[in-house]
Amino acid sequence: MGNRRIISDDRITVERPFIVEWNLHLRKVMLSDAGTYECHINTSPVQLSPIQLVVQEPPRILESASSPVSMRVKEGETVQLLCNATGTPPPEVTWYKRPPGKDQVGIMNPGEVLVIHNASRTCAEVYQCRASNGVDPPAVRTISVHVEFQPEVVLPTKRIGQSLSRPTILECIISAYPHNVNRWRFNGSFISQSADRYSIELYKDGENQVTLTLRINSIRESDYGRYECYASNLLGEDSETMELYKYSREEKTVPTPTTTARPWIENPQNNFGTKDHQVSNRNGHSGYYG
């Protein structure tokens, strides 16, 4: 009133740079300061000048009302991702999919809820919601979606031939999430790691794919037969069987080997188109697909 302040808030002052000008100065503006302010001029009649103050607030994602940062869903189910955001003005939420090692991909239909119907293993990605309202900085939340599915076993070849006393390597490819049991079986019994007989190794090929190898260091007569690549998790199991047979160079003519560990591999379903197509496995031993 006049040149006097009648409010205890030290952030608010009345400034009068000129005789006919009165300014209300708010420092360190808070959300609670938003509202309608009126300037009264004591004339007859009294003149009023209302001013609406809108306090802008950068976006904020509510942790308790949003999806957790890591979610699991079974293949075929529906998953709902929620990103609950607040701010002034109300923010708009946009969703992005971020495949590992790749650029982000924008998802249509912006909104706080993203629904994935009939989730497949290809939906297992990192999703990101971004809330923006023109007031920096935008709010971002990252949600990893893991799609669980039962194992699938694939054999690069169904038959492989090798001579006695030679080493050879059997290989199978397993896709699953999560991975639990990945084993080789021979004559119905699981094969265990053995320094002088067997070497079993597991290689990660992708997000949900591994290659399981079995190296037989020196083939004995009793090693010939059918080998089963077996995988299981809580959702199910799968297996494929391949044959290791005795190979004699007198029975089939093959190109001159470059190593002593080259097996003969037959695969009637290959797509090579030529009979003597040379390949190399991850351990450096070459073979010929027929």
UniProtKB/TrEMBL annotation:
SMART domains cross-referenced by the UniProt entry: IG, IGc2
GO cellular component terms given for this protein: neuron projection
InterPro entries: Ig-like_dom, Ig-like_dom_sf, Ig-like_fold, Ig_sub, Ig_sub2, Neural/epithelial_adhesion
Signal peptide location: none
Region (Disordered) location: 249-290
Cited Gene3D superfamilies: Immunoglobulins
Pfam families assigned to the protein according to its UniProt record, in alphabetical order: Ig_3
Superkingdom field: Eukaryota
Location of the Ig-like domain: 59-144, 151-245
Polar residues bias (residue ranges): 255-273
UniProt keywords, alphabetically: Disulfide bond, Immunoglobulin domain, Repeat, Signal
PROSITE patterns, per database record: IG_LIKE (PS50835)
Protein name: Ig-like domain-containing protein
Organism: Elysia chlorotica (Eastern emerald elysia)
Organism ancestry: Eukaryota, Metazoa, Spiralia, Lophotrochozoa, Mollusca
